[in-house]
Design a protein that fits this description.
2 copies of one chain form a homodimer. Helices cover 22% and strands 31% of the residues of chain A. By secondary structure, chain A is α/β, with parallel strands linked by helices. Chain A is globular, with a radius of gyration of 16 Å. The interface between A and B is large, with 37 and 37 residues. Strand 9 of chain A pairs antiparallel with strand 11 (176-185) of chain B, so a sheet runs across the interface.
Chain lengths: 199, 199
């Protein structure tokens, strides 16, 4: 069986930020209003995506360190019916029993690192793809490790000026040439670009 | 007469770099191979551009500090027939007489700052547009001053990992919402995106 591809699928502002400053449990994308394009991005994923499992970081799940530390069993900011509808693997240092949510979303907590999470996600994804959805820290770890097969970026029509960058210095540890696969501009001004990582 | 629009027209890697590390007179875009898409970008500008005058920084002209300091009268790395074919205004602290090159390119050296250069370029552009072509320092100054009317970015299909960023922290001093105007994907994988700066 062919191994499921790993897609880094994430939104960023035109100036490269995936979240604004002052993130919190209530405002996981921080200040700057990036959430205004969330529906567009979700719609694009529904129409074009082929995701069978998603890997995310602990902060992406919990909405920030504080909530997690206050309550390691928090369900995060996704609520009872998370928008995935497939298995989600959450990278964490805190072991925890799996949780089954409504709508086909299961949450599995992985303490064995990014390769272990990827292996489990691939097993769950079957013939579909595995997505890395962020946050920045987890996305960068997969990029640095050379494990990302394709980039699916949703470039939002805004300059934030500050926040959390996806591509910090040396996220690509050598020059990485990309092979464009698909470009779609949406009515709301989001440019959805997909590339194959070729070197 | 309507004032000529100011377009920030520049190439950057998908991870936001307009030049790689170790720039030199011989290699103004540094390491990483960004120059491989220069012909595509030049062709796009020829086909879609409406530029009547260009403003550039001293380093963009001279290919680096050293050449300029060694010889303040250097003609830079453009040679006898620069690729502009219209008036070019070079921001510098070193006053110098104008130079007329082949093919309709004139070089005017401006010591009065970015607003003075813009004013002179607008007068020269007539009914056409004024482009800011870089380098990063000059581009950022115009962005910070809120003088840029439109962004024309040529997103190159490569991750450099290091180099000179166009959008450093706080280049946008507040959140700037963009209005997409045009997106074109070229055969070489360059995504040409144009936005109006709306706030």
């Amino acid at each position: 069986m062919t191994m499921a591809k790993l897609i880094l699928d994430i939104s960023m502002s035109l100036d490269g930020f995936i979240a604004g400053p002052n993130r919190s449990l209530d405002r996981p994308l921080g200040e700057g209003g990036l959430e205004r394009w969330a529906r567009d991005v979700a719609g694009y994923r529904e129409q074009h995506g082929n995701t069978g499992a998603t890997v995310v970081g602990r902060r992406m799940f919990s909405g920030g360190d504080r909530a997690w530390e206050d309550d390691p069993n928090t369900d995060g900011w996704w609520g009872d019916d998370p928008p995935f509808h497939h298995p989600v693997f959450i990278l964490t240092h805190h072991a925890r029993e799996p949780v089954t949510k409504k709508g086909g979303t299961t949450l599995t907590f992985v303490t064995g690192g990014i390769e272990s999470a990827l292996e489990q996600a691939r097993a769950a994804a079957g013939a579909k793809e595995v997505a890395v959805g962020g946050g920045a820290n987890v996305a960068r770890q997969y990029l640095r490790a050379g494990l990302v097969d394709e980039l699916q970026l949703h470039v939002l029509p805004v300059l934030l000026g500050q926040g959390l960058r996806l591509f910090e210095d040396h996220v690509a540890q050598a020059v990485v040439v990309l092979q464009p696969i698909r470009m779609v501009e949406s009515l709301t001004g989001v440019v959805h670009v997909r590339y194959r990582v070729t070197s």
